[in-house]
Prior knowledge:
single chain, mainly beta, Deoxyuridine 5'-Triphosphate Nucleotidohydrolase, Chain A, three-stranded antiparallel beta sheet, globular
Amino acid sequence: MLNVKRLRPAALLPKRATAGSAGYDLFACLEEALVIPAGETRMVPTGIAIDVGSSELAAFIFARSGIAVKHGVAPANCVGVVDSDSRGEVMVGLHNHSSKDYTIQPEERVAQLVLMPVALPQVQECEELSDTGRGAGGFGSTGKL
């Protein structure tokens, strides 16, 4: 169960667009339009707080392809994380990667919220790690194609 608390009366609850949608649309809770100037970042309030119901889950804020691909506006941190114990307002930091200002309208769908399990193993210091074919090879170590 995803519990959602409205922090402002105008806030819209997250909503799946279709039966096959993996995420819930998040809506801008604004009293007036908000301009995100080209190359800049703005915080967009949603007017809601959430409780994912389990410490084994977290909510992740992903771009909406419509405004990301068509207008270059996507979460500033690529993917936002809402921890299971967070109870503050869900905010979406949007960055405008384009050369044109973009205006967010009140109630506009600005991102999508996806709930996923998180692995929380114990951290253990060790002297050696298991060996692999890649080893310590980093970026590009498996080839271009």
